[in-house]
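Retro notes
What went well: the complex prediction finally ran end to end.
Inputs used:
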Amino acid sequence: MGIFSYLLPKKNSSASVAKERLQIIVARERSTRGGPDYLPQLQEELLAVVRKYVPVDQDAVMVQVDRESGCEILELNITLPEHEEQGRQA
Amino acid sequence: MTKIVVVTSGKGGVGKTTTSAAIATGLAMRGYKTTVIDFDVGLRNLDLIMGCERRVVYDLVNVINGDSNLKQALIKDKRVDDLFILPASQTRDKDALTLEGVEKVLQGLIELGMDYVICDSPAGIEKGALTAAYFADEAIVVTNPEVSSVRDSDRILGILSSKTRKAERGEGDIPARLLLTRYSPQRVERGEMLSVEDVQDILAIELLGVIPESQAVLNASNSGAPVILEGESDAGQAYEDAVGRFLGEDRAHRFLTANKKSLFGRLFGGQ
Ligand SMILES: Nc1ncnc2c1ncn2[C@@H]1O[C@H](COP(=O)(O)OP(=O)(O)OP(=O)(O)O)[C@@H](O)[C@H]1O
Ligand SMILES: [Mg+2]
């Protein structure tokens, strides 16, 4: 620590933490933007259901509506934690 | 052709009014006929920053309601030719600010031959901010290098791309440019503040300028003169650069690095 930490650029500075957190939240908020008004609510409820079975992060559930040649596709993306066996114990 | 520009941010207190006053004054100083409108109904402040608070007789809502005509309500700036201020109403309820009413006022300003109309938006993403942005041809998004401000700016960008008249008519997104204000290069270098690159990475819009955190802004508001009139000050010059870029000039960004202390100073002089 001391002198060296002071001279070197800080990787784990509060600014880099801020940037990481922003990138995540902004991506999440953008994913439901422009879609139907119910999307954020749908995302919340889906997250609640998933969490009944697997402990996942706040941003594990992404929903998005895409339009493709006249039909709408609801795209649902759920990221599970790396060690699934850790889910729902106790 | 009149260009309508909204100065907006989502988050409150980030420098919208400071910026509206500076940019409008800068444009007028270059000979563009410019009106700056305060859309912050109930929280009038632009008049103070422009130093014309004692000359307010009528306001935006008076014009909308037909209590006065537009010319009576416009305050002509005493320092800069071609600069006019249209103050917000102090007391009336916010519903007075209808889209039809605002459209009528803007139409009047177009007929008066304005080159630019700068709309100083209230904070938030509710009706007041939507009304200020609705008729805009272009947006300046004012952001501080801080998480909640950046997030709100991103939300405002979403709103600009769907809730303006141009967007509703399918005429596409209005151009929106980023003005990063209250920037402290020292703190960025210490890793305590998001850098301009960080904010640009996240918001992914063109950078109009970076305004340093500056004592000159407070001095300017104390005396009721837009900071751009303080030509010697860092913030004044940064705003002047931003006006140049706004008009399409190619200007290098300044005030992005701290005055370097010597290594000795950094080791022993503290921060
Ligand atoms: N570059 C700067 N350096 C230092 N202080 C600043 C700077 N820009 C703005 N400020 C200060 O920040 C405060 C808020 O500024 P301002 O009123 O322009 O923000 P605003 O976005 O219009 O606020 P509101 O959302 O309430 O309308 C003021 O006290 C102003 O003096
Ligand atoms: Mg303001």
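What we learned: The two ends of chain A are 41 Å apart (CA to CA).
What to try next: split runs per interface for comparison.
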